[in-house]
Records
---
Amino acid sequence: MKSFAYKATSSIGEAVATLDQAKGAAVPMGGGTDLVGLMKNRIVTPEQVVDLKMVDGLEYIRKDASGYTIGAATTVADVQYSKEIADAYPVLSQAASVIASQQIRNQGTVGGNLCQRPRCWYFRNTQTPCLRRDGTYCSAVLGENKYHAILGGAGCFIVHPSDLAPALIALDAKAKISGPQGSRTVALEDFFVLPKEDLHHETILKDNEILEEVQIPAPMPGSKQVYLKHRIRQVWDFAILSCALQIQVQGNAIRDIRLVLGAVAPKPWRCHTAENILRGAALTPENVDRAIKAELAKARPMTQNAYKIDLAAEMMRQALLG
Ligand SMILES: Cc1cc2nc3c(=O)[nH]c(=O)nc-3n(C[C@H](O)[C@H](O)[C@H](O)COP(=O)(O)OP(=O)(O)OC[C@H]3O[C@@H](n4cnc5c(N)ncnc54)[C@H](O)[C@@H]3O)c2cc1C
């Protein structure tokens, strides 16, 4: 690991000022469960690490008039064990409980989970060319690509690894971002970017900004929420594919729906096409199959990952009709 300076900042203002002064040579750290591995492998080689866990008042789960707010330094375990979150947002609670291992959930933060870097084995290995790092081509195209993207890849075919992100997008969460000029709030869906927008970053964050909190509105009244995750091992493992759903049904008609797939694309994949077909329609197997087929018609599998199309279809069917 390259040597670096450790900076424990006590306020958000001090943290972003430190990042700003470093002009790209400093990185924020939550629990370090991802960042330290990246530094050991020299994928990331900062001069300075700014510890956000030392910032006062960045670790909270708060209820307000419009819903809940979760501070970026809140641990995944705190979300997992929050009764209030489990009652209001089962999809989030379920997602938090299947992340990695209990030790990583105790240490890893919500901010770190949303901002974690891709798990693509070519990205994580400095010996193999990687377009996202600084290479001239993506090794996955002609290489091992069974866990790579079937949607939204363009040049680079990483999948977004976060379990919290699809669940929070299904809940219509917003991201509050803090920088030297103040703060801004964006829909969490728009926090993430595809390679065609930015090949080297997974989020819209600039080098001198941090994710401060996520804001979750009240759930759709009477909604059903579910998070499904398929992984090779039942513990300690990233999703091969995941599916987050919030759906509101009145009578047999779907009044509102938010459906998001994880691990199929370089960002959490909101299924707008399927949602538009299902909104206002009856919740029947025929309508569900039609919506799934239309959504997945956009999929462009690589040489080894066409199975993800069938898996995605089955998981959406289970979430909607199970
Ligand atoms: C063995 C293993 C298994 C795992 N399995 C899963 C899994 O199944 N599902 C899953 O979702 N995750 C999984 N993870 C990832 C893990 O959940 C994340 O590493 C953890 O939540 C990240 O949190 P952290 O606070 O430790 O992030 P850190 O390691 O501190 O940071 C991760 C990245 O986010 C940036 N960052 C951190 N906080 C902020 C912030 N507030 N604003 C801006 N940037 C920030 C850092 O600069 C860094 O680039 C796994 C990790 C390991 C090591």
Note: The mean pLDDT is 97.
---
Amino acid sequence: MTSAEMLTPENPKVLGTGLEARGVHAWFGKNHVLSDINLNFAAGTVTALIGPSGCGKSTFIRTINRMHEFIPTAAMAGEVFLDGKDVYASGTDVTKIRLKIGMVFQKPNPFPSMTIGENVLSGLKLAQLKVPNKDDLLEECLTRAGLWKEVKDRLSAHGGSLSGGQQQRLCIARSLAVAPQVLLMDEPCSALDPGSTLRIEETIRELSDSMTIVIVTHNMQQAARVSDYTAFFLSDGGPGEMIETAPTSEIFSRPKDKRTEDYVTGRFG
Ligand SMILES: Nc1ncnc2c1ncn2[C@@H]1O[C@H](COP(=O)(O)OP(=O)(O)O)[C@@H](O)[C@H]1O
Ligand SMILES: [Mg+2]
């Protein structure tokens, strides 16, 4: 067993220096779906990825935490740096990368027959993390995910007994338990009602103090509410490209590219 990390108040996981994609391309078989994506994600910021369906947003975030390569026929080129180290460098432990770069999906996917508490702690063994006190970690993660008050008296209820919005926050708490530096969120609210959506958006804002967040969203108001930066992706017949990235207020008020303007003003997509 490799040396386990001890997670204590004196040794919190730090933000790191951020994330950077350089010259990322992706293919499914011969289908070139992403071309030359260059994006910087500064530590402690929230970046929204927007663009019409099929332009490669999900594929792009799967290249960041090396999930893309697990899809049959998938290929990629380029580099992804986390704290200055290429996550694709030979000899990199893919499991470790996935622990440092967590992911939350469109459809909440808690383990339905595990308890709420077991769900949150389910990644610890894989992460080889030793924690001085599991109850403290459980409370901390559920608090940061904005779920503690609602579940503190029913930690032994099944994950599947929660509402959709609560299940999504449980999945966020589960990601947090292994202390990731980056959280990738692929349309995390698209299956949720407006109230739950706002609750998750608050959670995202709170988490951004301690981690770097990349969120795919089709909801322009959501991008405007939660993100510091926005990147607009588009596939114009060919592979998806990143057309423009800027502080979110600029993307929505004075985009540089006509195609960005057309998209954010609802003319297509
Ligand atoms: N598992 C897959 N196998 C083959 N092609 C895929 C797969 N997933 C996505 N694609 C294709 O890759 C392109 C980008 O898809 P995706 O990344 O899902 O876009 P978005 O998330 O922006 O809607 C699309 O043309 C889609 O059909
Ligand atoms: Mg998608």
Note: Confidence is low (pLDDT under 50) at residues 8-12.
